[in-house]
Amino acid sequence: MDASKNSPQAVSNQNPDSVPVYTLWQLVLYALKLGTVGFGGPVALVGYMHRDLVEVRKWISEADYKEGLALAQLMPGPLAAQLAMYLGYVHYRNLGATLVGIAFVVPSFIMVVLLGMAYVAYGGLTWMQAVFYGVGASVIGIIAISAYKLTTKSIGKDKLLWAIYVASAAVTIITKSEIVWLFLGSGLLVWLVKAPPKNLFKGGGMKSIAFLSAPLPVTTTIAGTADWTVLTQIAVFFAEAGAFVFGSGLAIVPFLYGGVVNEFHWLNERQFVDAVAVAMITPGPVVITVGFIGYLVAGLSGAVVAALATFLPCYLFTIIPAPYFKKHGKKPGIVAFVDGVTAAAIGTITGAVVVLGQRSITDIPTVLLALVTVVLLWKMKKLPEPVVVAAAAVVGLLVYPGANI
Fold it and tell me: Which of 251, 270, 328, 380 could connect to 208 by a Cys-Cys bridge, CB 3.0–4.6 Å?
Protein backbone atom coordinates (compact mmCIF):
# COMPACT_ATOMS: atom_id res chain seq x y z
CA MET A 1 0.00 0.00 0.00
CA ASP A 2 1.36 3.41 -0.94
CA ALA A 3 1.11 5.50 2.21
CA SER A 4 1.75 8.69 0.22
CA LYS A 5 -1.68 8.33 -1.34
CA ASN A 6 -3.16 8.71 2.13
CA SER A 7 -1.16 11.79 3.13
CA PRO A 8 -2.95 15.07 3.91
CA GLN A 9 -1.43 16.62 0.77
CA ALA A 10 -2.68 13.80 -1.44
CA VAL A 11 -6.12 13.99 0.10
CA SER A 12 -6.25 17.77 -0.27
CA ASN A 13 -5.38 17.38 -3.95
CA GLN A 14 -8.32 15.02 -4.35
CA ASN A 15 -10.65 17.31 -2.44
CA PRO A 16 -9.36 20.87 -1.95
CA ASP A 17 -12.31 21.77 0.28
CA SER A 18 -11.47 19.07 2.82
CA VAL A 19 -8.00 19.50 4.33
CA PRO A 20 -7.51 17.66 7.64
CA VAL A 21 -6.60 19.74 10.69
CA TYR A 22 -5.27 16.68 12.50
CA THR A 23 -2.79 13.91 11.74
CA LEU A 24 -3.70 10.30 11.12
CA TRP A 25 -1.90 9.29 14.30
CA GLN A 26 -3.93 11.76 16.36
CA LEU A 27 -7.11 10.08 15.10
CA VAL A 28 -5.67 6.61 15.72
CA LEU A 29 -4.77 7.57 19.29
CA TYR A 30 -8.30 8.92 19.79
CA ALA A 31 -9.77 5.61 18.52
CA LEU A 32 -7.42 3.71 20.83
CA LYS A 33 -8.58 5.79 23.80
CA LEU A 34 -12.26 5.42 22.87
CA GLY A 35 -11.84 1.67 22.53
CA THR A 36 -10.18 1.60 25.96
CA VAL A 37 -12.53 3.80 28.02
CA GLY A 38 -15.64 4.20 25.85
CA PHE A 39 -18.42 2.57 27.86
CA GLY A 40 -22.08 2.37 26.92
CA GLY A 41 -22.25 0.29 23.75
CA PRO A 42 -22.97 1.48 20.20
CA VAL A 43 -25.48 4.18 21.08
CA ALA A 44 -23.11 5.90 23.48
CA LEU A 45 -20.04 5.38 21.26
CA VAL A 46 -21.55 7.11 18.22
CA GLY A 47 -22.52 9.95 20.55
CA TYR A 48 -18.96 10.23 21.89
CA MET A 49 -17.59 10.40 18.33
CA HIS A 50 -19.97 13.21 17.42
CA ARG A 51 -19.18 15.15 20.58
CA ASP A 52 -15.42 14.71 20.44
CA LEU A 53 -14.67 14.79 16.70
CA VAL A 54 -17.41 17.08 15.36
CA GLU A 55 -18.33 19.45 18.18
CA VAL A 56 -15.20 19.76 20.32
CA ARG A 57 -12.16 19.08 18.11
CA LYS A 58 -13.85 19.90 14.79
CA TRP A 59 -11.76 17.29 12.98
CA ILE A 60 -14.81 15.89 11.16
CA SER A 61 -17.55 17.95 9.53
CA GLU A 62 -21.21 17.44 10.39
CA ALA A 63 -21.84 16.31 6.79
CA ASP A 64 -19.09 13.69 6.89
CA TYR A 65 -20.34 12.40 10.23
CA LYS A 66 -23.89 12.09 8.87
CA GLU A 67 -22.61 10.23 5.82
CA GLY A 68 -20.71 7.82 8.06
CA LEU A 69 -23.69 7.23 10.34
CA ALA A 70 -25.96 6.64 7.33
CA LEU A 71 -23.52 4.15 5.80
CA ALA A 72 -23.06 2.33 9.12
CA GLN A 73 -26.84 1.97 9.50
CA LEU A 74 -27.37 0.77 5.93
CA MET A 75 -24.61 -1.84 5.89
CA PRO A 76 -24.59 -5.03 7.99
CA GLY A 77 -22.21 -5.23 10.93
CA PRO A 78 -21.56 -3.39 14.22
CA LEU A 79 -22.63 0.26 14.09
CA ALA A 80 -19.91 1.96 16.16
CA ALA A 81 -17.00 0.09 14.58
CA GLN A 82 -18.17 0.93 11.07
CA LEU A 83 -18.68 4.59 11.92
CA ALA A 84 -15.17 4.76 13.39
CA MET A 85 -13.75 3.17 10.23
CA TYR A 86 -15.61 5.62 8.01
CA LEU A 87 -14.39 8.61 10.00
CA GLY A 88 -10.86 7.26 9.55
CA TYR A 89 -11.57 7.04 5.81
CA VAL A 90 -12.79 10.64 5.51
CA HIS A 91 -9.33 12.23 5.21
CA TYR A 92 -6.95 9.27 5.16
CA ARG A 93 -8.84 6.80 2.98
CA ASN A 94 -8.21 3.04 3.32
CA LEU A 95 -5.13 3.40 5.52
CA GLY A 96 -7.08 5.62 7.91
CA ALA A 97 -10.06 3.24 8.00
CA THR A 98 -7.77 0.27 8.64
CA LEU A 99 -5.70 1.81 11.44
CA VAL A 100 -8.65 3.46 13.16
CA GLY A 101 -10.65 0.23 13.01
CA ILE A 102 -7.81 -1.78 14.55
CA ALA A 103 -7.16 0.82 17.26
CA PHE A 104 -10.85 0.93 18.15
CA VAL A 105 -11.32 -2.84 18.45
CA VAL A 106 -8.02 -4.15 19.90
CA PRO A 107 -8.28 -2.72 23.48
CA SER A 108 -11.66 -4.29 24.22
CA PHE A 109 -10.57 -7.51 22.51
CA ILE A 110 -7.61 -7.80 24.89
CA MET A 111 -9.92 -7.13 27.85
CA VAL A 112 -12.47 -9.80 26.92
CA VAL A 113 -9.73 -12.36 26.30
CA LEU A 114 -8.25 -11.66 29.76
CA LEU A 115 -11.72 -12.00 31.26
CA GLY A 116 -12.13 -15.24 29.32
CA MET A 117 -8.92 -16.56 30.86
CA ALA A 118 -10.15 -15.65 34.36
CA TYR A 119 -13.55 -17.15 33.61
CA VAL A 120 -12.03 -20.49 32.60
CA ALA A 121 -9.46 -20.49 35.43
CA TYR A 122 -11.92 -19.74 38.23
CA GLY A 123 -15.00 -21.55 36.96
CA GLY A 124 -17.09 -18.49 36.10
CA LEU A 125 -17.24 -14.88 37.26
CA THR A 126 -19.84 -14.79 40.02
CA TRP A 127 -19.49 -11.03 40.46
CA MET A 128 -20.26 -10.27 36.81
CA GLN A 129 -24.03 -10.00 37.08
CA ALA A 130 -23.71 -7.69 40.10
CA VAL A 131 -21.35 -5.39 38.20
CA PHE A 132 -23.64 -5.41 35.18
CA TYR A 133 -26.58 -4.59 37.47
CA GLY A 134 -24.92 -1.27 38.34
CA VAL A 135 -23.17 -0.58 35.05
CA GLY A 136 -26.23 -1.44 32.95
CA ALA A 137 -28.36 1.14 34.77
CA SER A 138 -25.67 3.82 34.54
CA VAL A 139 -25.18 3.13 30.84
CA ILE A 140 -28.86 3.90 30.21
CA GLY A 141 -28.24 7.38 31.61
CA ILE A 142 -25.16 7.79 29.39
CA ILE A 143 -26.90 6.78 26.18
CA ALA A 144 -29.97 8.88 27.05
CA ILE A 145 -27.73 11.97 27.17
CA SER A 146 -26.06 10.93 23.90
CA ALA A 147 -29.40 10.37 22.17
CA TYR A 148 -30.68 13.78 23.35
CA LYS A 149 -27.59 15.58 22.01
CA LEU A 150 -27.74 13.77 18.66
CA THR A 151 -31.45 14.56 18.33
CA THR A 152 -31.18 18.27 19.06
CA LYS A 153 -28.12 18.64 16.83
CA SER A 154 -29.24 16.68 13.78
CA ILE A 155 -33.04 16.86 13.51
CA GLY A 156 -33.47 20.62 13.98
CA LYS A 157 -36.92 22.02 13.16
CA ASP A 158 -37.61 20.02 10.01
CA LYS A 159 -41.12 18.54 10.37
CA LEU A 160 -40.51 15.70 7.90
CA LEU A 161 -37.33 14.63 9.71
CA TRP A 162 -39.15 14.81 13.04
CA ALA A 163 -41.93 12.58 11.69
CA ILE A 164 -39.33 10.04 10.52
CA TYR A 165 -37.51 10.29 13.85
CA VAL A 166 -40.66 9.65 15.91
CA ALA A 167 -41.79 6.79 13.63
CA SER A 168 -38.38 5.11 13.80
CA ALA A 169 -38.25 5.40 17.58
CA ALA A 170 -41.75 3.93 17.87
CA VAL A 171 -40.97 1.02 15.54
CA THR A 172 -37.80 0.23 17.50
CA ILE A 173 -39.66 0.28 20.82
CA ILE A 174 -42.49 -1.91 19.51
CA THR A 175 -40.43 -4.45 17.54
CA LYS A 176 -37.32 -4.27 19.79
CA SER A 177 -35.18 -4.47 16.66
CA GLU A 178 -33.59 -2.29 13.98
CA ILE A 179 -35.07 -2.62 10.48
CA VAL A 180 -32.75 -1.72 7.61
CA TRP A 181 -35.64 -1.14 5.21
CA LEU A 182 -36.85 1.63 7.50
CA PHE A 183 -33.57 3.48 6.96
CA LEU A 184 -33.73 2.98 3.19
CA GLY A 185 -37.36 4.05 3.04
CA SER A 186 -36.71 7.17 5.12
CA GLY A 187 -33.81 8.17 2.91
CA LEU A 188 -35.82 7.67 -0.27
CA LEU A 189 -38.78 9.60 1.14
CA VAL A 190 -36.73 12.69 1.99
CA TRP A 191 -34.94 12.43 -1.36
CA LEU A 192 -38.25 12.36 -3.27
CA VAL A 193 -39.70 15.25 -1.25
CA LYS A 194 -36.68 17.57 -1.13
CA ALA A 195 -34.74 16.66 -4.28
CA PRO A 196 -36.95 14.99 -6.90
CA PRO A 197 -35.33 12.48 -9.27
CA LYS A 198 -34.98 15.01 -12.11
CA ASN A 199 -32.08 16.54 -10.18
CA LEU A 200 -30.27 13.23 -10.00
CA PHE A 201 -30.53 11.70 -13.47
CA LYS A 202 -27.68 13.90 -14.67
CA GLY A 203 -24.09 13.43 -13.61
CA GLY A 204 -24.43 9.84 -12.45
CA GLY A 205 -26.22 10.73 -9.22
CA MET A 206 -28.65 7.83 -9.53
CA LYS A 207 -25.78 5.37 -9.62
CA SER A 208 -24.68 6.41 -6.16
CA ILE A 209 -28.11 5.59 -4.75
CA ALA A 210 -28.66 2.47 -6.85
CA PHE A 211 -26.07 0.48 -4.96
CA LEU A 212 -27.88 1.25 -1.70
CA SER A 213 -31.17 -0.17 -2.91
CA ALA A 214 -29.73 -3.38 -4.33
CA PRO A 215 -31.10 -6.62 -2.87
CA LEU A 216 -29.57 -7.24 0.53
CA PRO A 217 -28.07 -10.59 1.52
CA VAL A 218 -30.10 -13.07 3.52
CA THR A 219 -28.66 -14.98 6.44
CA THR A 220 -27.42 -18.44 5.46
CA THR A 221 -26.56 -21.48 7.54
CA ILE A 222 -23.61 -22.89 5.64
CA ALA A 223 -21.62 -23.23 8.86
CA GLY A 224 -23.85 -26.09 9.94
CA THR A 225 -23.74 -28.05 6.66
CA ALA A 226 -20.22 -29.43 6.82
CA ASP A 227 -18.23 -31.41 9.36
CA TRP A 228 -15.29 -29.05 9.53
CA THR A 229 -12.80 -28.39 12.29
CA VAL A 230 -13.94 -26.19 15.15
CA LEU A 231 -11.83 -23.20 14.04
CA THR A 232 -13.24 -23.39 10.53
CA GLN A 233 -16.77 -23.58 11.94
CA ILE A 234 -16.00 -20.58 14.14
CA ALA A 235 -14.64 -18.64 11.14
CA VAL A 236 -17.65 -19.32 8.93
CA PHE A 237 -20.28 -18.80 11.63
CA PHE A 238 -18.87 -15.50 12.88
CA ALA A 239 -18.29 -14.28 9.30
CA GLU A 240 -22.02 -14.83 8.75
CA ALA A 241 -22.72 -12.83 11.91
CA GLY A 242 -20.59 -9.93 10.68
CA ALA A 243 -21.86 -10.03 7.11
CA PHE A 244 -25.59 -10.61 7.46
CA VAL A 245 -26.76 -9.06 10.74
CA PHE A 246 -27.97 -5.46 10.49
CA GLY A 247 -28.21 -2.94 13.29
CA SER A 248 -26.09 -2.13 16.32
CA GLY A 249 -23.86 -4.58 18.13
CA LEU A 250 -26.83 -5.65 20.26
CA ALA A 251 -28.63 -6.90 17.16
CA ILE A 252 -26.07 -9.68 16.79
CA VAL A 253 -26.92 -11.23 20.17
CA PRO A 254 -30.01 -13.24 19.05
CA PHE A 255 -28.09 -14.53 16.01
CA LEU A 256 -25.16 -15.60 18.20
CA TYR A 257 -27.50 -17.31 20.67
CA GLY A 258 -29.09 -19.38 17.91
CA GLY A 259 -25.75 -20.66 16.66
CA VAL A 260 -23.56 -20.79 19.75
CA VAL A 261 -26.13 -22.32 22.14
CA ASN A 262 -28.77 -24.06 20.01
CA GLU A 263 -26.98 -25.17 16.84
CA PHE A 264 -23.37 -25.92 17.78
CA HIS A 265 -23.82 -26.28 21.57
CA TRP A 266 -20.49 -24.56 22.17
CA LEU A 267 -21.82 -22.80 25.31
CA ASN A 268 -24.68 -23.36 27.70
CA GLU A 269 -27.21 -20.61 28.42
CA ARG A 270 -25.47 -19.39 31.57
CA GLN A 271 -22.13 -19.09 29.76
CA PHE A 272 -23.80 -17.18 26.92
CA VAL A 273 -25.47 -14.75 29.33
CA ASP A 274 -22.09 -14.20 30.99
CA ALA A 275 -20.55 -13.55 27.55
CA VAL A 276 -23.10 -10.81 26.85
CA ALA A 277 -22.51 -9.34 30.31
CA VAL A 278 -18.76 -9.23 29.63
CA ALA A 279 -19.42 -7.23 26.47
CA MET A 280 -21.63 -4.78 28.35
CA ILE A 281 -19.26 -4.14 31.26
CA THR A 282 -16.18 -3.65 29.05
CA PRO A 283 -15.58 -0.56 26.89
CA GLY A 284 -15.57 -0.56 23.11
CA PRO A 285 -18.03 -2.27 20.72
CA VAL A 286 -20.55 -4.66 22.27
CA VAL A 287 -19.97 -7.15 19.45
CA ILE A 288 -16.52 -7.83 20.92
CA THR A 289 -18.32 -10.50 22.94
CA VAL A 290 -17.39 -12.74 19.99
CA GLY A 291 -13.81 -12.71 21.32
CA PHE A 292 -14.97 -13.98 24.71
CA ILE A 293 -17.13 -16.66 23.11
CA GLY A 294 -14.32 -17.71 20.78
CA TYR A 295 -11.96 -18.04 23.74
CA LEU A 296 -14.36 -20.26 25.67
CA VAL A 297 -14.80 -22.48 22.60
CA ALA A 298 -11.20 -22.81 21.35
CA GLY A 299 -8.83 -20.75 23.47
CA LEU A 300 -6.82 -17.80 22.17
CA SER A 301 -6.88 -19.02 18.56
CA GLY A 302 -10.67 -19.26 18.76
CA ALA A 303 -10.91 -15.69 20.09
CA VAL A 304 -8.70 -14.33 17.30
CA VAL A 305 -10.54 -16.22 14.54
CA ALA A 306 -13.97 -15.18 15.87
CA ALA A 307 -12.99 -11.50 16.07
CA LEU A 308 -11.32 -11.40 12.64
CA ALA A 309 -14.24 -13.21 11.01
CA THR A 310 -16.76 -10.82 12.56
CA PHE A 311 -15.00 -7.53 11.84
CA LEU A 312 -13.54 -8.23 8.38
CA PRO A 313 -16.96 -8.12 6.62
CA CYS A 314 -17.92 -4.84 8.30
CA TYR A 315 -14.54 -3.38 7.29
CA LEU A 316 -15.16 -4.33 3.65
CA PHE A 317 -18.76 -3.05 3.83
CA THR A 318 -17.29 0.30 4.90
CA ILE A 319 -14.36 0.88 2.54
CA ILE A 320 -16.05 -0.48 -0.62
CA PRO A 321 -19.08 1.89 -0.68
CA ALA A 322 -17.20 4.77 1.01
CA PRO A 323 -15.91 6.25 -2.28
CA TYR A 324 -19.49 6.55 -3.56
CA PHE A 325 -20.47 8.52 -0.47
CA LYS A 326 -17.42 10.77 -0.79
CA LYS A 327 -17.81 11.32 -4.53
CA HIS A 328 -21.53 12.01 -4.62
CA GLY A 329 -22.19 12.99 -1.01
CA LYS A 330 -22.54 16.74 -1.66
CA LYS A 331 -25.20 16.42 -4.37
CA PRO A 332 -28.66 17.62 -3.24
CA GLY A 333 -30.28 14.24 -3.76
CA ILE A 334 -27.64 12.41 -1.75
CA VAL A 335 -27.72 15.05 1.00
CA ALA A 336 -31.49 14.59 1.25
CA PHE A 337 -31.12 10.80 1.27
CA VAL A 338 -28.50 10.94 4.03
CA ASP A 339 -30.66 13.36 6.07
CA GLY A 340 -33.54 10.88 5.93
CA VAL A 341 -31.38 7.93 6.91
CA THR A 342 -29.79 9.96 9.72
CA ALA A 343 -33.19 10.95 11.12
CA ALA A 344 -34.27 7.30 11.10
CA ALA A 345 -30.96 6.23 12.67
CA ILE A 346 -31.20 8.73 15.52
CA GLY A 347 -34.84 7.78 16.06
CA THR A 348 -33.74 4.16 16.32
CA ILE A 349 -31.01 5.10 18.78
CA THR A 350 -33.58 6.92 20.92
CA GLY A 351 -35.90 3.94 20.77
CA ALA A 352 -33.00 1.70 21.81
CA VAL A 353 -32.68 3.74 25.01
CA VAL A 354 -36.21 2.67 25.94
CA VAL A 355 -35.68 -0.97 24.91
CA LEU A 356 -32.41 -1.29 26.81
CA GLY A 357 -33.89 0.61 29.74
CA GLN A 358 -36.65 -1.96 30.09
CA ARG A 359 -33.97 -4.63 30.54
CA SER A 360 -31.63 -2.69 32.83
CA ILE A 361 -33.95 -0.47 34.88
CA THR A 362 -35.73 -3.06 37.01
CA ASP A 363 -36.07 -1.61 40.53
CA ILE A 364 -35.57 1.53 42.63
CA PRO A 365 -31.74 1.31 42.89
CA THR A 366 -31.36 1.03 39.11
CA VAL A 367 -33.80 3.92 38.56
CA LEU A 368 -31.73 6.05 40.94
CA LEU A 369 -28.46 5.04 39.27
CA ALA A 370 -29.75 6.03 35.83
CA LEU A 371 -31.14 9.37 37.10
CA VAL A 372 -27.97 10.22 39.02
CA THR A 373 -25.90 9.47 35.91
CA VAL A 374 -28.02 11.82 33.79
CA VAL A 375 -27.83 14.61 36.38
CA LEU A 376 -24.08 14.26 36.87
CA LEU A 377 -23.29 14.27 33.14
CA TRP A 378 -25.73 17.12 32.53
CA LYS A 379 -24.36 19.33 35.30
CA MET A 380 -20.68 18.35 35.18
CA LYS A 381 -19.77 18.63 31.50
CA LYS A 382 -16.17 17.51 31.98
CA LEU A 383 -16.88 14.50 34.18
CA PRO A 384 -15.39 11.42 32.40
CA GLU A 385 -17.93 8.69 31.70
CA PRO A 386 -15.53 5.90 32.84
CA VAL A 387 -15.50 7.43 36.34
CA VAL A 388 -19.30 7.26 36.46
CA VAL A 389 -19.28 3.68 35.14
CA ALA A 390 -16.65 2.60 37.71
CA ALA A 391 -18.70 4.11 40.54
CA ALA A 392 -21.83 2.37 39.23
CA ALA A 393 -19.96 -0.96 39.17
CA VAL A 394 -19.05 -0.53 42.85
CA VAL A 395 -22.66 0.34 43.70
CA GLY A 396 -23.79 -2.76 41.82
CA LEU A 397 -21.49 -4.97 43.86
CA LEU A 398 -22.88 -3.47 47.08
CA VAL A 399 -26.61 -3.40 46.37
CA TYR A 400 -27.20 -6.22 43.85
CA PRO A 401 -30.34 -7.98 45.17
CA GLY A 402 -29.63 -11.42 46.57
CA ALA A 403 -25.92 -11.12 45.80
CA ASN A 404 -23.43 -13.28 47.64
CA ILE A 405 -20.28 -11.92 46.08
Answer: 328
